[in-house]
Write a structure and sequence with these properties.
mainly alpha, 7 helices, single chain, globular
């Protein structure tokens, strides 16, 4: 549980532009994750996986990249790993990964790729009635349209 909390807190710290705390929390999340894979995850956190942690690493890197471009490489790698390993039954979560990936593509000035990813995220969010994911995806689409 602490692993996930550190990962989420890292994202929030990054959005507050607290780079040191964000990186420290990500490091703590990955450290705890490496020690927690004992096969006894409680059901309420059973979704925690390397893909989930990569999703949060990507979210954090996207936020950090707004003021520190050095985060782009780490974020791209994390999101590519998350997309590759994302469990197919976790459909709603895939919309969040696609939205973060679209934001990473925007940061890399690849608007065509960003549009493709966000179209997928919007489709999933709408099909699963996920208001949170749909709002995030539509906000990202508005950024893409403003830059086009």
């Amino acid at each position: 549980m602490r692993c996930w909390l550190h990962a989420v807190r890292a994202h929030h710290q990054a959005r507050l532009a607290d780079h040191a705390s964000a990186r420290s929390d990500l490091d703590a999340a990955w450290h705890l994750f490496s020690r927690a894979e004992d096969g006894e995850k409680p059901p309420y956190i059973s979704y925690l996986s390397e893909a989930e942690l990569n999703k949060w690493t990507g979210h954090t890197a996207v936020a950090l990249a707004e003021t520190d471009r050095t985060a782009l490489h780490t974020g791209r790698q994390a999101l590519e790993a998350a997309l590759t390993a994302w469990p197919s039954p976790m459909v709603r979560g895939s919309a969040a990964v696609l939205t973060a990936s679209a934001r990473m593509s925007i940061a890399h000035h690849n608007l065509d790729q960003a549009q493709n990813l966000i179209d997928q995220a919007i489709s999933i969010a709408a099909a699963t009635s996920s208001t949170r994911n749909l709002q995030a995806a539509l906000h990202t689409r508005a950024i893409i349209l403003a830059k086009a």
